[in-house]
Amino acid sequence: MKRNRGFTLIEILLALLIGSVVLISIYGVFSAVSQARNRLEAEGDVYHQARIFFDRLGSELGSLRVAPLGTQAVFSSGHDSDGNIYFEFNTELVSPLLRQNGGLSRVRYEVQQGDESGTLYRSEQILLTDLAVSEPLRFFSGVNDFQLRYLRNGNWQETWTGKKPPQLVEVTLELDVDGRSIPFRSSFVLPGVK
Q: For labelling, which of 33, 70, 98, 154 has a CA lying 20 to 30 Å from the CA of 105?
């Protein structure tokens, strides 16, 4: 009579080794796909935030109030006392919640530097009433670089202090995504500026 023979130890170890290699390969592929998905999701969020910022800024600059109101310049830019970059301007595009108080506001964008990166803030003050400046709202964090350039009569300037607004504003923005910088740049022609 013939005896049924089982698997030898070497055959079992070889099967376990092949199974382990297959499972490790599958896990590696799954891990790479998962990391790529997370990276693309984070980049998508940053692109979305930048698009919202540039759309909003373009709309506000497109509604620039060219005629001065009081002694304040229509458009100004530079560095505040803490060295933070800012620019502010008068616009006829008012936030919906503040619209009932008037149709003209002073909008200020400011980048406050932190330890590793900056945070872009936006505040708004209604000019036709005695309301205080709104609490600065965080637009987004992770700002590695924020630069502004202004064009007037064919000359580029890094800051703007003139009484008349520039003809064109160029905004360069670099946002951090998991240790990588993603650059954005857009230019805005200011209407009604001669």
A: 154
